[in-house]
Amino acid sequence: MRGVHGDGANAGHERQRLAVATPIPYPIREIPMKLRTFLATVVTGAALAATGSAPADAGAATPQTTAAHCYVDSNGTLHCANGASELRSQPHFGAPVVSRLDSTYSYFSCWTEGDPHSGGNNIWYYTDGDDGGHGFLPAQRVFTPQDPMPGMYHC
Fold first, then answer.
1. Kind of pairing between the strands at 153-154 and 110-113
2. What domain range is 43 assigned to?
3. Pair 114, 148: CB distance under 8 Å
4. Consecutive 10-residue runs of the chain (155 residues): their mean pLDDT?
5. What pTM, to 2 d.p., does this model score?
6. For the chain, how many structural domains are there in total?
C-alpha cells in the first residue's frame, strides 16, 4: 500500500514541477513597459468600445465629449449626460432644493428660463431626481451641444 500511495503523491509533484518549469515563449519582463502600457490601453479601449461601457469617471467628462450622446426623442424629451446636481423647485438658485440628481445620464422633460449661471445662459432643465423628487437644474450641469436643445418642450 505504501508504494502505491507514494507513487500517487510523487506523480502529483512531478506534474506541478513540469507546469512551473515550462518556459513562457515571450516573458513579460522582456516587453518594454511603454509597450505593455500601450497594449493594455488598446485592449481596454477595444473592450469598452465592444461592450458600449464607459469608464467609472464618465460623469467627470466635459460637455464636448458627451454632447454626441444627447438627443431629443419624438416626445420632446431630452436624453443626455449630466453632472450631479441639486434640483430646485423653481429655476432660481434661491429656490428650495427639492431633490438630487446623482446619475450621469438622465432624461429631461422640458426647459425654461431662470437665473443666469456659469454656462453662459439662463436655461434650466426640468427632470426627476434620483430620490423620487423632481425639479430644475441649470443647463451648465447638462452636457448638451446647445441650450435649449432643439425639439424640446418649453415648460
1. parallel
2. 2-51
3. no
4. 46 46 46 42 44 41 54 96 96 97 95 96 97 95 95 95
5. 0.58
6. 2
